[in-house]
Amino acid sequence: MLNMSDIMETITMIQEENLDIRTITMGISLADCADSDIDRSCAKVYDKICRKAENLVSTGEAIEKKYGIPIVNKRISVTPIAQLAGASGGNPINYALTLDKAADAVGVNFIGGYSALVHKGFSAGDRVLIDSIPEALAETNLVCSSVNIGSTRAGINMDAVRLMGHQIKKAAELTRDNQCIGAAKLVVFCNAVEDNPFMAGAFHGAGEADCVISAGVSGPGVVRSVLAKMPDDAPLHEIAEAIKKTAFKITRMGQLVGSEAAEKLGAEFGIIDLSLAPTPAIGDSVAHILEEIGLEQCGAHGTTAALAMLNDAVKKGGVMASSSVGGLSGAFIPVSEDAGMIAAARSGALSIEKLEAMTAVCSVGLDMIVIPGDTDEAVISAIIADEAAIGMINSKTTAVRVIPAIGVPEGEELNFGGLLGYGPVMKLRKESPAKMIERGGRIPAPIQSLKN
Predict the structure, then answer these.
(1) Is the peptide bond prior to 378 cis by the omega test (within 30 degrees of 0)?
(2) 188 bridge partner residues
(3) What is this structure's pTM?
(4) What is the 3 state secondary structure string of the chain?
(5) Distance between CA atoms of 220 and 268, rounded to whole angstroms?
(6) Yes or no: domain 212-449 corresponds to CATH 3.90.1140.10
(7) How sure is the predictor about 402, in pLDDT bands with cuts at 50, 70 and 90?
(8) 145-192: per-residue pLDDT in tens?
């Protein structure tokens, strides 16, 4: 039962502290759309997406109106398209164009799943899809792409790592007249999960039901507001307890919205991803939470410890609020999407090396980082390898989404608009890793993979 105090607290969170449901994402299996003829397969894909997601946006809007809870994005994730391309052959860009057309028809913000899973090697369809990614992202507006190149159980596919350094650079080059947006819609994973509702990395995993609704909740502004009201001398275990209680309340709201959306749409209820996903809006920043804990600025010594505590407390509170917590869940640190991170990067307090250290204790990885446009492809591949190693050794999901700023001088910014935000070009190390990257092969799985 909700009392008046609970209702008023939630209203304050929404109106003053940027609390929202960041996304409801419909995952759709395209397994039954496979066909030896690519045109027939694309027709099946379009028909199924339009049939399943026909009422996704209107249902989200109805729930927004009913509860007064903003649902910022309505999205779709689909079976990794490389699997369909392997069955049909042909040019996989046909699938990208079909996904874009279907997403536009049903009115969603993004569609994810132009993806390949190559952590242990390339199978039919994988290589041709990866080769097509830059062009596919340049020719579509709503399609997002991801490639999983490693896992704790399989190790790291360094041939795929080398290839993705090239594809990221090419995706930026093909969209240089549009803020290099192609690279902002491409994520390279280690230990990718099957039930992630967040873009650009969402795809519908093989173990999922035919049609699933998952929700991604966000509330960094709420957490910061709670901490701002605590005494300056409050011990850290009390700070962690306050974060945990706040995450519980946020997650309960997500559970309500996600389960009701699934019921109305006749879909399975999947998971609540309780990640604290920031925006460029003032007061909606993970970096500002860390500063509220006691750092002069995000990036200072102590940042990794503060982020570890935040991430753990968010997960503990969320697990108590829902039996269906999944996805990535924790605290995201996308530089261009977080006002505090942007400020720290501009001032020099936050370096890519510090960001890499932070990814060992938070959700995902090096996210939405603008890098110099003349960065060598081998350096991009090495960044991917470093991040994948953190994920592989620590049995966690890590990812890289970097945007080479083609033709943009160091010190200037790319501006993507909306939730993707804007970010300064960050410096990278100049020493070359090319010899290591050119070796290819595979980094073997670590000893902790032998758990059976």
Answers:
(1) no
(2) 147, 400
(3) 0.93
(4) CCCHHHHHHHHHHHHHCCCEEEEEEEEECCHHHCCCCHHHHHHHHHHHHHHHCCCHHHHHHHHHHHHCCCEEEEEEEECCHHHHHHHHCCCCHHHHHHHHHHHHHHCCCEEEEEEEECCCCCCCCHHHHHHHHHHHHHHCCCEEEEEEEEECCCEEEHHHHHHHHHHHHHHHHHCHHHCCHHHHCEEEEECCCCCCCCCCCCCCCCCCCCEEEEEEEECHHHHHHHHHCCCCCCCHHHHHHHHHHHHHHHHHHHHHHHHHHHHHHCCEEEEEECCECCCCCCCCCHHHHHHHHCCCCCCCCCHHHHHHHHHHHHHHHHHHHCCCECCCCCECCEHHHCHHHHHHHHHCCCCHHHHHHHCCCCCCCEEEEEEECCCCHHHHHHHHHHHHHHHHHHCCCEEEEEEEECCCCCCCEEECCHHHCEEECCCCCCCCCHHHHHHCCEECCCHHHCCC
(5) 28
(6) no
(7) very high
(8) 999 999 999 999 999 999 999 999 999 999 999 999 999 999 999 999
Tokens of residue 239, six digits: 């700070």
For residue 282, give every residue at least 6 positions away whose Cβ sits within 8 Å of its Cβ, in sequence order, or none.
339
Report the length, in residues, of the chain: 452
